[in-house]
From TrEMBL:
Protein name: threonine synthase
Biased composition regions of type Low complexity, renumbered to the chain: 46-61
Enzyme class: lyase
Location in or out of the cell: Plastid, Chloroplast
Organism: Gossypium tomentosum
Catalytic activity, as annotated: O-phospho-L-homoserine + H2O = L-threonine + phosphate
Domain of life where this protein originates: Eukaryota
Cofactor(s) annotated in UniProt: pyridoxal 5'-phosphate
Pathway listed: Amino-acid biosynthesis; L-threonine biosynthesis; L-threonine from L-aspartate: step 5/5
Region (Disordered): 46-70
Subunit structure: Homodimer.
Length: 534
C-alpha cells in the first residue's frame, strides 16, 4: 500500500546558501531549497529537492535504486550538491580567551598549542547560526535509519557539526552510532524507585565501545591527510583496550597501518584480540596506561605516526554526537542528568560540547547536569572535585575491573573540569565491590553491561540515595562498552572467585545429579521460592 504526505517549512525557505551534501537529489535539484518532508512507503527525505513524491501516489519500487554498477559512495558522488560550502572548523587552544589569535587548519598535524596546552576544534558558529534550531532538528532527523553515504552513520549524520569540509570520499565509516537508548524500567523501579531511567548503550557499536564514534572522525581525517601527501605513514595509540580496537578496525577498513601500545597483562583477552585480528602492530609494554601514553607521545614526535589518543581533539568531535543523539531520541527534550564513566576524561567534555552546541544553535533551551563517575582505584578527578577544585594531583592507578578507566594522570583533566563547572556537574566514585555488584544487579534485570557502566550505575545509586537525583528526574547513564568484552569478570563474580569480595548477587549454576527425582526436587524448591507471595 502506498501512502504519501508532505509538509512545507516556509521558515526554512530563506536559507539559500546551505552547503549540504544531499541525499539522493537529482542533478537538476542540486541547488539549496526549502525542506520538504515526504512521507512515502518507497521514498526518502531529500532536504535539497524542490519537489515532493506526494505528486505520485504509486511510485515505482525501483525509483530510488542506484545504478547496477554503483556502490553507495558512487551514488552519493553522483548526487552531490554543487553548492559552495560555507561552513568551516579549525584547531584553537582549549578554553582560549576572545583575544587569542592562535589557530591551525585541521589539515595540519598538531596536538598541542604553542604554550603546550590542549587544542579544541572550533566551528564557525556564526555560519551555523544562519540556520535556526528547527532546520538542524529536521535535517538530523531526516537522516536517521538511512543508508545514504555517509549519513547512515550516527556521527556523519551530523557532518556539518563534525568535519564540515571533508570530502565524503575520504570518510571511513562503519555506520557507527545510532545506538540504543534503553529504558531501564525494571532496574530503575526495583533498585532506585525511578521510572525515567535510561541507559545509552554506546557499546552496541562496530567494535563494541563508544570509541568508534571518535575514531571514524580521526581516521577519516588521516585518510584525507594521506591523500594530501602529508607525512603520515601510520596511526598509533596507547590504549587500555577499547581505543586500540576502534583504531585498528577503522585503519584496517581504510588500508592504513595501525600501531598499538598496550600495557602488558592489564586488559581483557577480548580487548587484546581485536587489534591483533584487525592486523595492527601491537606492542605489549611492561607498564601501565600512563607509561604507554608517555611513550606514544615521544614516538609520534619522532616518527611519521599520527597520534590517535584523546589528546587529539578530533576524536571528541565524533564522541559529542552521542549527546546530540540522546536529545534526538528524546524528541529534542533535555534529560535532567547524564552520567558518564571517566578515565582519560575526554568523553565527559565531548558530551558537554554536544549538548552545548545544541543549546547555542537553538535546538534546545538548556543542557543537562553532568556526572563523571570514576573507579575508586583510579580517581584523580574525584579527589580534585572533593577538594573543591583546589589542587589536582595525579595518582598511581590501581587495578580495577573497569580497566578502560584505569588512568591516574588523565590527559583531558582541564576539559573535564571545564565541562563539569559549566554544567553544574558532580563527580562520584565506585569501589570494586560496588561496581561489580551494580553490574550484577543491572544484568539481573535484562542488561549485560561492562564494569565501567557499573561505575556509572554506582554513582547514580549514591546520588539517588542522597537525594541529589530525584525519583522523577529523567536520567541517562552512558554505557561505554559491550559486556561481552568483560565476560571473565562476570565469570569470576558469579563463581565467587574474587578475593575479599562477597559477590552478594552471584548466581552460580546449580550442580544436580542426572536423575529425574533430583532435578524435580531442585526445581520444586526454586519455583516455590519464586512463587508470588499473596
Amino acid at each position: 500500500m502506498a501512502y504519501s504526505c508532505s509538509l512545507f517549512h516556509s521558515s526554512l525557505a530563506s536559507k539559500s546558501n546551505f552547503p549540504l551534501l544531499h541525499h539522493r537529489n537529482h542533478p537538476k535539484f542540486n541547488r539549496p531549497a526549502p525542506i520538504v518532508i515526504s512521507c512515502s512507503s518507497s521514498s526518502t527525505f531529500d532536504p535539497s529537492s524542490t519537489t515532493s513524491s506526494s505528486n505520485n501516489n504509486t511510485p515505482s519500487p525501483q525509483k530510488n535504486r542506484r545504478l547496477a554498477d554503483e556502490n553507495i559512495r558512487d551514488e552519493a558522488r553522483r548526487h552531490r550538491s554543487t553548492a559552495k560550502n560555507t561552513l568551516s572548523a579549525k584547531y584553537v587552544p582549549f578554553n582560549a580567551g576572545p583575544d587569542c589569535t592562535e589557530s591551525y587548519s585541521l589539515d595540519e598535524i598538531v596536538y598541542r598549542s604553542r604554550s603546550g596546552g590542549l587544542l579544541d576544534v572550533q566551528h564557525d558558529m556564526e555560519a551555523l547560526k544562519k540556520f535556526d534550531g528547527a532546520y538542524w532538528r529536521e535535517l538530523f532527523d531526516s537522516r536517521v535509519g538511512k543508508t545514504t553515504w555517509p549519513y547512515g552513520s550516527g556521527v556523519w549524520s551530523k557532518k556539518e557539526w563534525v568535519l564540515p569540509e571533508i570530502d565524503p570520499d575520504d570518510i571511513v565509516s562503519a555506520f557507527e552510532g545510532n545506538s540504543n537508548l534503553f529504558w531501564a524500567e525494571r532496574f530503575g523501579k526495583q533498585f532506585l524507585g525511578m521510572n525515567d531511567l535510561w541507559v545509552k548503550h554506546c557499546g552496541i557499536s562496530h567494535t563494541g565501545s563508544f570509541k568508534d564514534l571518535g575514531m571514524t572522525v580521526l581516521v577519516s581525517q588521516v585518510n584525507r591527510l594521506r591523500k594530501l601527501k602529508r607525512p603520515v605513514v601510520g596511526v598509533g595509540c596507547a590504549s587500555t583496550g577499547d581505543t586500540s580496537a576502534a583504531l585498528s578496525a577503522y585503519c584496517a577498513a581504510a588500508g592504513i597501518p595501525s600501531i598499538v601500545f598496550l600495557p602488558a597483562n592489564k586488559i581483557s583477552i577480548a580487548q587484546l584480540v581485536q587489534p591483533i585480528a584487525n592486523g595492527a602492530f601491537v606492542l605489549s609494554i611492561d607498564t601501565d596506561f600512563d607509561g604507554c601514553m608517555k611513550l606514544i607521545r615521544e614516538v609520534t614526535a619522532e616518527l611519521p605516526i599520527y597520534l590517535a589518543n584523546s589528546l587529539n581533539s578530533l576524536r571528541l568531535e565524533g564522541q559529542k554526537t552521542a549527546a546530540i543523539e540522546i536529545l534526538q531520541q528524546f524528541d529534542w527534550e533535555v534529560p535532567d542528568w547524564v552520567i558518564v564513566p571517566g578515565g582519560n576524561l575526554g568523553n565527559i567534555y565531548a558530551f558537554y560540547k554536544g549538548f552545548k552546541m545544541c543549546q547555542e544553535l537553538g535546538l534546545v533551551d538548556r543542557i543537562p547536569r553532568l556526572v563523571c563517575a570514576q573507579a575508586a582505584n583510579a580517581n584523580p578527578l574525584y579527589l580534585y572535585f572533593k577538594s573543591e577544585w583546589n589542587e589536582f594531583k595525579a595518582v598511581k592507578a590501581n587495578t580495577t575491573f573497569a580497566s578502560a578507566i584505569q588512568i591516574g594522570d588523565p590527559v583531558s583533566i582541564d576539559r573535564a573540569v571545564y565541562a563539569l563547572k559549566n554544567s553544574n556537574g558532580i563527580v562520584e566514585e565506585a569501589t570494586e565491590e560496588e561496581l561489580m555488584d551494580a553490574m550484577a544487579q543491572a544484568d539481573s534485570t535484562g542488561m549485560f553491561i561492562c564494569p565501567h557502566t557499573g561505575v556509572a550505575l554506582t554513582a547514580l545509586m549514591k546520588l539517588r540515595k542522597s537525594g541529589v537525583i530525584g525519583a522523577g528526574d529523567r536520567t541517562v547513564v552512558v554505557s561505554t562498552a559491550h559486556g561481552l568484552k568483560f565476560t571473565q569478570s562476570k565469570v569470576d563474580y558469579h563463581s565467587k572467585e574474587i578475593p575479599d569480595m562477597a559477590c552478594q548477587f552471584a548466581n552460580p549454576p546449580m550442580q544436580v545429579r542426572a536423575e529425574f527425582g533430583s532435578v524435580m526436587d531442585v526445581l520444586m524448591k526454586y519455583l516455590g521460592d519464586k512463587a508470588p507471595k499473596h
